[in-house]
Design a protein that fits this description.
259 residues, alpha/beta, Rossmann fold, four-stranded antiparallel sheet, three-stranded parallel sheet, 7 helices, 11 strands, binds glutamic acid
Length: 259
Protein backbone atom coordinates (compact mmCIF):
# COMPACT_ATOMS: atom_id res chain seq x y z
CA UNK A 1 0.00 0.00 0.00
CA UNK A 2 1.36 3.42 -0.85
CA UNK A 3 0.24 6.60 0.83
CA UNK A 4 -2.17 6.24 3.72
CA UNK A 5 -4.21 8.97 5.39
CA UNK A 6 -6.92 7.98 7.80
CA UNK A 7 -9.25 10.04 9.95
CA UNK A 8 -11.70 10.09 12.83
CA UNK A 9 -14.70 12.36 12.33
CA UNK A 10 -16.85 12.71 15.45
CA UNK A 11 -19.97 14.86 15.62
CA UNK A 12 -19.92 17.13 18.69
CA UNK A 13 -23.46 16.24 19.74
CA UNK A 14 -22.23 14.99 23.09
CA UNK A 15 -19.21 13.38 24.75
CA UNK A 16 -17.39 10.36 23.32
CA UNK A 17 -18.65 6.95 24.44
CA UNK A 18 -17.38 3.41 24.01
CA UNK A 19 -18.84 3.21 20.49
CA UNK A 20 -16.90 6.30 19.41
CA UNK A 21 -13.76 4.96 21.10
CA UNK A 22 -14.00 1.80 19.00
CA UNK A 23 -14.19 3.88 15.81
CA UNK A 24 -11.30 6.09 16.90
CA UNK A 25 -9.15 3.13 17.94
CA UNK A 26 -9.87 1.08 14.81
CA UNK A 27 -8.96 3.96 12.48
CA UNK A 28 -5.95 5.03 14.53
CA UNK A 29 -4.37 1.59 14.74
CA UNK A 30 -5.03 0.91 11.06
CA UNK A 31 -3.32 4.18 10.12
CA UNK A 32 -0.30 3.56 12.35
CA UNK A 33 0.07 -0.04 11.16
CA UNK A 34 0.20 1.25 7.59
CA UNK A 35 2.75 3.89 8.54
CA UNK A 36 0.10 6.44 7.65
CA UNK A 37 -1.20 9.76 8.90
CA UNK A 38 -4.26 10.07 11.12
CA UNK A 39 -6.43 13.19 11.13
CA UNK A 40 -9.31 14.44 13.23
CA UNK A 41 -12.29 16.31 11.85
CA UNK A 42 -15.05 17.75 14.00
CA UNK A 43 -18.36 17.29 12.17
CA UNK A 44 -20.16 20.31 13.58
CA UNK A 45 -22.20 20.68 10.43
CA UNK A 46 -25.64 20.17 11.88
CA UNK A 47 -25.33 23.19 14.15
CA UNK A 48 -28.73 22.80 15.85
CA UNK A 49 -27.66 19.38 17.14
CA UNK A 50 -24.19 20.46 18.31
CA UNK A 51 -23.67 20.83 22.04
CA UNK A 52 -21.56 23.84 23.13
CA UNK A 53 -18.23 22.69 24.52
CA UNK A 54 -18.56 19.16 23.13
CA UNK A 55 -15.90 19.60 20.42
CA UNK A 56 -13.38 20.74 22.99
CA UNK A 57 -14.30 17.94 25.32
CA UNK A 58 -13.89 15.38 22.51
CA UNK A 59 -10.42 16.65 21.61
CA UNK A 60 -9.26 16.66 25.23
CA UNK A 61 -10.63 13.18 25.76
CA UNK A 62 -8.80 11.89 22.68
CA UNK A 63 -5.60 13.43 24.02
CA UNK A 64 -6.10 11.93 27.43
CA UNK A 65 -6.60 8.50 25.85
CA UNK A 66 -3.27 8.92 24.06
CA UNK A 67 -4.36 9.70 20.50
CA UNK A 68 -2.06 11.95 18.48
CA UNK A 69 -3.26 13.48 15.24
CA UNK A 70 -1.16 14.73 12.38
CA UNK A 71 -1.97 18.26 11.35
CA UNK A 72 -4.70 20.71 12.29
CA UNK A 73 -8.21 19.65 13.24
CA UNK A 74 -10.74 20.48 10.55
CA UNK A 75 -14.11 21.95 11.57
CA UNK A 76 -17.07 21.49 9.23
CA UNK A 77 -18.64 24.70 10.51
CA UNK A 78 -15.87 26.58 8.66
CA UNK A 79 -16.30 24.77 5.36
CA UNK A 80 -19.50 26.26 3.93
CA UNK A 81 -17.78 27.76 0.89
CA UNK A 82 -16.27 24.44 -0.13
CA UNK A 83 -19.65 22.68 0.17
CA UNK A 84 -21.33 25.40 -1.87
CA UNK A 85 -18.72 25.10 -4.60
CA UNK A 86 -19.15 21.32 -4.74
CA UNK A 87 -22.92 21.63 -4.87
CA UNK A 88 -22.64 23.84 -7.94
CA UNK A 89 -20.72 21.10 -9.74
CA UNK A 90 -23.38 18.44 -9.17
CA UNK A 91 -26.41 17.63 -11.31
CA UNK A 92 -29.14 18.69 -8.90
CA UNK A 93 -32.74 19.78 -8.73
CA UNK A 94 -34.66 21.76 -6.18
CA UNK A 95 -37.49 19.84 -4.60
CA UNK A 96 -40.33 22.13 -3.70
CA UNK A 97 -43.05 19.55 -3.22
CA UNK A 98 -44.00 18.11 0.13
CA UNK A 99 -44.21 14.54 -1.09
CA UNK A 100 -42.01 12.16 0.77
CA UNK A 101 -41.86 9.57 -2.00
CA UNK A 102 -39.46 10.12 -4.86
CA UNK A 103 -41.84 8.41 -7.29
CA UNK A 104 -44.47 11.10 -6.90
CA UNK A 105 -42.04 14.03 -6.88
CA UNK A 106 -42.51 16.17 -9.99
CA UNK A 107 -39.56 18.44 -9.36
CA UNK A 108 -36.84 16.66 -11.27
CA UNK A 109 -35.66 19.59 -13.41
CA UNK A 110 -31.95 20.29 -13.53
CA UNK A 111 -30.97 23.64 -12.00
CA UNK A 112 -27.64 25.40 -12.03
CA UNK A 113 -27.51 27.59 -8.98
CA UNK A 114 -29.56 26.26 -6.10
CA UNK A 115 -30.98 29.21 -4.22
CA UNK A 116 -33.82 29.64 -1.76
CA UNK A 117 -35.14 27.47 0.99
CA UNK A 118 -36.01 24.11 -0.48
CA UNK A 119 -34.22 20.84 -0.42
CA UNK A 120 -31.73 20.18 -3.18
CA UNK A 121 -31.30 16.66 -4.49
CA UNK A 122 -28.68 15.14 -6.70
CA UNK A 123 -29.86 12.94 -9.57
CA UNK A 124 -28.97 9.36 -8.68
CA UNK A 125 -29.78 6.26 -10.65
CA UNK A 126 -26.90 3.83 -10.65
CA UNK A 127 -25.69 0.95 -8.59
CA UNK A 128 -22.50 1.49 -6.62
CA UNK A 129 -20.47 -1.37 -5.23
CA UNK A 130 -17.25 -1.48 -3.27
CA UNK A 131 -15.03 -3.96 -1.49
CA UNK A 132 -15.21 -3.36 2.22
CA UNK A 133 -12.10 -4.53 4.08
CA UNK A 134 -14.22 -6.08 6.81
CA UNK A 135 -17.57 -6.98 5.25
CA UNK A 136 -16.45 -7.80 1.71
CA UNK A 137 -18.40 -6.81 -1.41
CA UNK A 138 -21.29 -4.42 -0.75
CA UNK A 139 -23.47 -2.79 -3.36
CA UNK A 140 -26.55 -0.67 -3.44
CA UNK A 141 -28.71 1.21 -5.90
CA UNK A 142 -28.22 4.95 -5.38
CA UNK A 143 -31.38 6.94 -6.08
CA UNK A 144 -31.77 10.72 -5.93
CA UNK A 145 -30.85 12.02 -2.47
CA UNK A 146 -30.69 15.28 -0.56
CA UNK A 147 -27.41 17.20 -0.69
CA UNK A 148 -28.72 20.42 0.85
CA UNK A 149 -31.60 20.44 3.25
CA UNK A 150 -34.58 22.78 3.13
CA UNK A 151 -33.22 24.64 6.17
CA UNK A 152 -30.10 25.48 4.15
CA UNK A 153 -27.74 23.05 5.88
CA UNK A 154 -25.56 20.91 3.66
CA UNK A 155 -26.17 17.20 3.99
CA UNK A 156 -23.69 15.03 5.86
CA UNK A 157 -23.14 12.91 2.70
CA UNK A 158 -21.89 15.90 0.73
CA UNK A 159 -19.80 17.45 3.50
CA UNK A 160 -18.00 14.21 4.29
CA UNK A 161 -17.02 13.64 0.67
CA UNK A 162 -15.77 17.20 0.16
CA UNK A 163 -13.79 17.11 3.42
CA UNK A 164 -12.26 13.67 2.91
CA UNK A 165 -10.99 14.83 -0.49
CA UNK A 166 -9.68 18.11 0.94
CA UNK A 167 -7.84 16.27 3.72
CA UNK A 168 -6.37 13.75 1.27
CA UNK A 169 -8.00 10.82 3.07
CA UNK A 170 -7.18 7.48 1.43
CA UNK A 171 -8.68 5.14 4.01
CA UNK A 172 -11.84 5.33 6.08
CA UNK A 173 -12.31 3.03 9.05
CA UNK A 174 -15.58 3.66 10.89
CA UNK A 175 -18.66 1.99 12.37
CA UNK A 176 -20.84 -0.31 10.31
CA UNK A 177 -23.82 1.98 10.94
CA UNK A 178 -22.36 4.05 8.08
CA UNK A 179 -21.99 1.12 5.67
CA UNK A 180 -25.10 2.06 3.75
CA UNK A 181 -24.05 5.71 3.48
CA UNK A 182 -20.92 4.66 1.63
CA UNK A 183 -22.49 4.03 -1.81
CA UNK A 184 -23.92 7.58 -1.78
CA UNK A 185 -20.53 8.95 -0.80
CA UNK A 186 -18.75 7.02 -3.56
CA UNK A 187 -21.43 8.24 -5.97
CA UNK A 188 -20.63 11.86 -5.04
CA UNK A 189 -16.88 11.22 -5.31
CA UNK A 190 -17.44 9.95 -8.83
CA UNK A 191 -19.66 12.90 -9.78
CA UNK A 192 -17.06 15.32 -8.43
CA UNK A 193 -14.07 13.48 -9.94
CA UNK A 194 -12.48 12.81 -6.57
CA UNK A 195 -9.99 10.04 -5.78
CA UNK A 196 -11.19 6.65 -4.64
CA UNK A 197 -11.07 5.76 -0.95
CA UNK A 198 -10.64 2.35 0.70
CA UNK A 199 -13.24 1.46 3.36
CA UNK A 200 -13.33 -0.71 6.41
CA UNK A 201 -16.48 -0.73 8.51
CA UNK A 202 -16.20 -2.26 11.94
CA UNK A 203 -19.09 -3.74 13.94
CA UNK A 204 -20.79 -1.16 16.17
CA UNK A 205 -21.00 -1.58 19.93
CA UNK A 206 -24.46 -2.46 21.22
CA UNK A 207 -25.93 -2.20 24.71
CA UNK A 208 -27.69 -5.00 26.58
CA UNK A 209 -30.89 -4.24 24.63
CA UNK A 210 -29.09 -4.68 21.34
CA UNK A 211 -29.21 -0.96 20.50
CA UNK A 212 -26.21 0.83 19.02
CA UNK A 213 -24.46 2.94 21.66
CA UNK A 214 -25.23 6.59 20.97
CA UNK A 215 -26.37 9.71 22.67
CA UNK A 216 -29.96 8.72 21.88
CA UNK A 217 -29.54 5.40 23.68
CA UNK A 218 -27.91 7.24 26.59
CA UNK A 219 -24.44 5.72 26.23
CA UNK A 220 -22.29 6.86 29.16
CA UNK A 221 -19.44 9.29 28.47
CA UNK A 222 -15.92 7.82 28.54
CA UNK A 223 -14.57 7.97 32.07
CA UNK A 224 -11.03 9.42 32.03
CA UNK A 225 -10.08 7.48 35.16
CA UNK A 226 -10.76 4.23 33.30
CA UNK A 227 -8.93 5.15 30.08
CA UNK A 228 -6.65 2.11 29.92
CA UNK A 229 -9.43 -0.34 30.75
CA UNK A 230 -11.75 1.27 28.19
CA UNK A 231 -9.10 1.08 25.48
CA UNK A 232 -8.74 -2.62 26.19
CA UNK A 233 -12.51 -3.04 26.14
CA UNK A 234 -12.60 -1.38 22.72
CA UNK A 235 -9.73 -3.63 21.56
CA UNK A 236 -11.62 -6.70 22.77
CA UNK A 237 -14.67 -5.58 20.79
CA UNK A 238 -12.47 -5.41 17.70
CA UNK A 239 -11.26 -8.94 18.37
CA UNK A 240 -7.73 -7.93 19.34
CA UNK A 241 -5.72 -9.33 22.20
CA UNK A 242 -5.61 -7.01 25.21
CA UNK A 243 -2.55 -4.87 25.78
CA UNK A 244 -0.68 -4.90 29.06
CA UNK A 245 0.80 -1.42 29.44
CA UNK A 246 -0.49 0.51 32.44
CA UNK A 247 -1.23 4.01 31.14
CA UNK A 248 -3.48 4.85 28.20
CA UNK A 249 -0.66 6.32 26.06
CA UNK A 250 1.59 3.29 26.39
CA UNK A 251 -1.36 1.00 25.96
CA UNK A 252 -2.45 2.67 22.76
CA UNK A 253 1.11 2.49 21.45
CA UNK A 254 1.20 -1.20 22.26
CA UNK A 255 -2.13 -1.80 20.49
CA UNK A 256 -0.83 -0.02 17.42
CA UNK A 257 2.14 -2.37 17.34
CA UNK A 258 4.82 -0.22 18.92
CA UNK A 259 5.16 2.07 15.90
N1 LIG B 1 -19.69 12.28 12.07
C1 LIG B 1 -20.14 10.94 11.84
C2 LIG B 1 -20.59 10.33 13.13
O1 LIG B 1 -20.14 10.77 14.18
C3 LIG B 1 -19.08 10.04 11.28
C4 LIG B 1 -18.77 10.33 9.89
C5 LIG B 1 -17.80 9.40 9.24
O2 LIG B 1 -16.99 8.72 9.89
O3 LIG B 1 -17.83 9.39 8.02
O4 LIG B 1 -21.39 9.42 13.11
Amino acid sequence: MGEYTGRFAPSPTGPLHLGSLVAALASYVDARQHGGKWLVRIEDLDTPRCVPGAADDILRTLEHFGFEWDGPVMFQSERGEAYRAALERLPVYACTCSRKSLDSCQCRNLIHKPEGMHSVRVFGGRTIGFEDRHFGWFEQQVDDFVVRRADGLFAYQLAVVVDDAEQGVTDIVRGSDLLDSTPRQIFLQQELGMPKIRYKHVPVVRNADGEKLSKQTLAPALDWALAAALLNQAALHLGWPPAEAAGPRELLRELAGGF
